[in-house]
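pls design
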């Protein structure tokens, strides 16, 4: 009988420990998500070239905050991890879209220069007697 009491107490301690661990907000994950979101909000390329990615990250932050406020910490932790990834993706998407825009603009300028040179040659040829 003594063994059953010890086992029961041990089981109770384990269960209480599990519940106590689950009842703490995922502070580190939330802080990391908020920090990544701050960086994304401050990144002009993310704002200008990746507004959809930035919006997705903001949506995840909002959902994370709601889950944390409702003390659904497992869901809040998952959303925090997703939000951090989404904010970092917005920064990366912004940089990639800016680079593509610069490449496209350079290509357009080169094409316009070629066309201008051809037009100038045609004009010069047309004005010769």
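designed seq:
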């Amino acid at each position: 009988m003594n063994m059953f009491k010890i086992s029961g107490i041990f089981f109770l301690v384990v269960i209480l420990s599990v519940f106590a661990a689950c009842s703490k907000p995922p502070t580190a994950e939330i802080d990391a998500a908020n920090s990544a979101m701050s960086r994304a909000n401050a990144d002009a390329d993310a704002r200008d070239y990746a507004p959809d990615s930035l919006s997705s990250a903001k949506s995840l932050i909002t959902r994370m905050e709601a889950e944390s406020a409702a003390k659904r910490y497992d869901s809040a932790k998952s959303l925090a991890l997703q939000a951090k990834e989404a904010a970092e993706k917005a920064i990366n998407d912004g940089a990639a879209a800016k680079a593509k825009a610069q490449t496209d603009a350079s290509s357009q300028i080169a094409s316009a220069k070629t066309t201008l040179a051809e037009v100038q040659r045609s004009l010069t040829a047309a004005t010769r007697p």
